[in-house]
Each structure stands twice: as structure tokens, then as C-alpha cells.
Design a protein that fits this description.
Blueprint lengths: L4 H63 L2 H17 L9
């Protein structure tokens, strides 16, 4: 009876690859779980910051509208749009 060494090598390779991936998964799952908790906290914090910034801007624009401060409103709007363009949230209008 002839032994097919290629087939035996292939089976051994598959078993060793399975063991290596099992070790990788066993080490990576706790890290993924920890970073997932951090990500949830960061997203919750970003939501709170977004709500706060929206409220502040809305109150500011209502104040400007009530007091009829058009020059100040134009200046503040220019700063806000410039910051948004610098961080890449809106495309730059002037190149």
C-alpha cells in the first residue's frame, strides 16, 4: 500500500492552520470586546457633544436674529464654515 504524502501533509497543514487560527481568535476576542465597549462610549460622548453644540448654535442664532446683529452673524458663520471646511466636513468653496 502506497502512502500519499501530499494528502497527509495537506491534512496536517489544515489541522495546524486551524489550531493557529483558534489561538489567534482566543487572544483577539477579549481585545475586540474591550475596544467595542470603548467605541460605544465614544459614540455616546460624540452624540452628547453634538447635541450640546447644536443647542449652543441654535441659541446663538436665535439671539443674533432677535437682536438683528447681521455683521456678527456673518462673521461667526464664516468662522463656523471655515472650521468645517478645514476638518473636511464640507468641501472648500474657495480653492
Amino acid at each position: 500500500m502506497k502512502i500519499d504524502w501530499i494528502l497527509i501533509g495537506w491534512i496536517i497543514d489544515m489541522i495546524l492552520n486551524g489550531v493557529v487560527w483558534l489561538v489567534i481568535v482566543a487572544l483577539a476576542l477579549p481585545l475586540i470586546d474591550k475596544t467595542d465597549k470603548w467605541t460605544r462610549k465614544a459614540v455616546k460622548l460624540m452624540g452628547s457633544a453634538d447635541d450640546f453644540i447644536r443647542k449652543v448654535l441654535e441659541d446663538f442664532f436665535e439671539l443674533v436674529e432677535k437682536k438683528n446683529l447681521q455683521i456678527l452673524a456673518a462673521f461667526i458663520l464664516m468662522i463656523i464654515l471655515g472650521v468645517l471646511a478645514q476638518i473636511g466636513l464640507i468641501p472648500k468653496l474657495i480653492t
